[in-house]
Amino acid sequence: MPIKTKLDASTDELENAHQNNELELDLFLEAVFRKYGYDFRSYSRASLTRRIKTQIERLKLENMCQLIHLVLHDEKAFIEVFDHMTVNVTEMFRDPYFYKSFREVVAPQLRSYPSLKIWHAGCSTGQEVYSMCILLKETGLYDKAQIYATDIDPQVLEKAKKGIFSLEAAALYSRNYHDSGGLHTLSDYYTARYDNIIMDSSLKKNVIFADHDLATDQVFSEMQVIICRNVLIYFNHGLQDRVFRLFSNSLDYGGYLCLGSKESLRFSDCYKLYDTLNSKYKIYKKTHQHDLFSLQINR
Prior knowledge:
- The structure is a single chain.
- This protein is about 40% helix and about 20% strand.
- The protein has nine helices and ten strands.
- The chain starts with 5 loop residues before the first helix and ends in a 13-residue tail after the last strand.
- The protein is of the alpha/beta class.
- The protein folds into two domains: about 5-85; about 95-295, Rossmann fold (3-Layer(aba) Sandwich).
- It has helices spanning about 5-35, 45-60, 65-75, 75-85, 95-110, 125-140, 155-160, 170-180, 235-250; strands at about 115-120, 145-150, 165, 190-195, 195-200, 205-210, 225-230, 250-260, 275-280, 285.
C-alpha cells in the first residue's frame, strides 16, 4: 500500500478546502435564490467568490455559513450584500469609439424606421442610457424612440432615474463625449449643482426604467436595438447562451445587437443569425430568421 507523503496530505487538505468552499458558495446562492428570487447561480464563480469574501470581511463574519444565516434572517442586511454582489462599473460614453461607430453605422439605418424600441439591458446607474439618449437626440432619432432601461438591482435603477452623477467625473465624461463624435459640449445636457451634475429631464422623457433579471426573466418583444455592454463577462457560458437566445427572440429581423468589447456572439448558437458590422466594438445586425423552437429559453 503506497505511503502518503506530507505533500500528498497537503494536497488533499487543499482539495477538501476547495470542495467545502464551493459547497458553501452553492448553498449561499441557493439560499438567495429561494428566499429572494435572485439567481446568481450561473454567474462567474471567481468574480462572485471575490465579492462575497469582501462582504464577509466587511460584516466581520467568520465564514460563509454565518453570511447565509444573516441574509436568510435579515432582509436589510441582504439588500446591502446584494448591492455589492452586482457590478456597477460604468461611465458616460464608456468606450467612446463604440458610440462613434453606432453614430456613423447604425443611426443612419434607423432613420427609415417610423418608430424605435431600444432595450438597454443591465443599465446599472444609467450613465450609458443617458449617453445613448444624447446620441439619439443629436442624430434626430430621440423623438421616435422608446428606451427600456433595465437592471436586476432596484437601488441602482433609482439612481438611474434621478440622473444625478458626480461633478468630479464630468471631465472624463466630457472627454468621452468629444471622442464619441458629439456635436456640442456635454455641459449642454446637464446642470451643475454643488458637487453633482443633473442630467436634463428631456433626456429621460422617453425612457422607462424597469426591473429585469437576465438569468430568469423572459423576452422584451419587437426591439429594433438591444444594448448590453460589459454585463455578460460576469456570466458563465450557459447563462451567456440563455441571454443570447433571449436577445435573439426579443430582436426584430434587421435589428441591432450591441455588446461590450470583451464579449462576443461567436461561440453562441445564435451567431449564425447575425452579420458582424463592427468586430472591435461588437455591433451585430440580425439578418436571418430563426426557428423559435430552437431558441427556447431556459427558465
